[in-house]
Amino acid sequence: MLELRNIDVSFRSEKQESIFRAKRIQVLHGISLEVPEGLCLGMLGESGSGKSTTGRVLCGLLKPDKGQVLLNGKDVYHTKEGRKALREYISIVFQDYTTSANPRFQVKDIIAEGLQMYRRRTGKRFDISPEVNSLLEQVGLDKSFLTRYPHELSGGQLQRVCIARAIGCHTPMIVLDEAISSLDAHTQVQIMDLLKELKVRYGLTYIFITHDLTAITYLCDRVLFLYQGQVVEECCVSEIAEVKNEYAQKLLSAIIDFEEGT
Ligand SMILES: Nc1ncnc2c1ncn2[C@@H]1O[C@H](COP(=O)(O)OP(=O)(O)OP(=O)(O)O)[C@@H](O)[C@H]1O
Ligand SMILES: [Mg+2]
Q1: What are phi and psi of 169, to 5 degrees?
Q2: Which residues pair with 22 in a beta bridge?
Q3: Where do the domains of the chain lie?
Q4: What is the pLDDT along the chain (262 residues), one digit of tens a residue?
Q5: Cβ(23) – ligand 1 distance below 6 Å
Q6: pTM score
Q7: Which ligand is closest in space to the CA of residue 54?
Q8: In a mutational test of the pocket of ligand 1, which residue from 7, 46, 51 has the highest number of ligand atoms less than 8 Å from its CB?
Q9: CB-based contacts of 179: which residues, under 8 Å, 6+ apart?
């Protein structure tokens, strides 16, 4: 079980507060949330609302100024081991798959990265290459892709490779930060179907960060609304039409108007 309690995050601003101190801008204000195991938790909010920053705190990539990140009740940022435990618990798939895959690596090497991490972490001995083949097949790509480079793949194919790498890490939880947002609608549905299938096969938990309400309703069980660095509403996806918070209602109607207009 993963939990955030009263998380504050601020970043250094260009401006000086005094000659000795740079001004800081607070972007997360007391974020608290629980990630229920085995579910897909959606995070919805406008650009700049703090979704990716929350995702980075959750993954152990950014230490908050204040608050606790609890993994099975233990505060992970408190100790080096805790942070390591968190990185072993969660992997992440970013929106920008073009930069998250090394352009000099072939597909087989990109997928192998996740498996190597898993092997180092657990000390298990296994041959990487058949595992790479199996992961490639599981994300719907055939063996001809093994020796291709990222620039030789379509966006959807490369994102499948990044998902295979994340699955290869064998972490129980995966954060998907706008992981399908730059793909066309048809490919988005294909990738979401793949994510659903892998979730059941491996008993995974997802945190799905997006602007896209349709994707949330297709994939997620629960949804959190973020506004200016705060969680303003949380509900089951089946109750999404009944949200009470004013901002969440506005966000929903803006998204629905936009989707109807397109
Ligand atoms: N490293 C950083 N240094 C300074 N400010 C940052 C940094 N990272 C994020 N921010 C600021 O924090 C705020 C929240 O950013 P964040 O990336 O979490 O938003 P987001 O909800 O993911 O937006 P988007 O939907 O556009 O991806 C923004 O105002 C952003 O400019
Ligand atoms: Mg973001």
Answers
A1: -70, -20
A2: 16
A3: 2-261
A4: 899 999 999 998 877 767 777 788 999 999 999 998 999 999 999 889 999 999 999 988 899 999 999 998 899 988 888 888 898 899 989 877 677 889 999 999 999 999 999 998 888 888 999 999 999 999 999 999 999 999 999 988 998 999 999 999 999 999 999 988 888 888 889 899 999 999 999 999 999 999 888 899 999 999 999 999 999 999 999 998 888 888 888 877 776 666 666 5
A5: no
A6: 0.89
A7: 1
A8: 51
A9: 93, 94, 95, 97, 159, 162, 163, 191, 208
- CA 58 to ligand 1 center in whole angstroms: 15
The domain made up of 2-261 has a fold known as: Rossmann fold (3.40.50)
Residues 60/83, Cβ–Cβ less than 8 Å: yes
The Cα 20–Cα 7 span in angstroms is: 26
Say how far apart CA 7 and CA 132 lie, in whole Å.
38
Report the length, in residues, of the chain: 262
Q: Check pocket membership of 48 for ligand 1, CB cut-off 6 A.
A: yes
Among the bound ligands, the one closest to the CA of 211 = 1
C-alpha 160 chain-centroid distance:
14
Tokens of 28: 């997360």
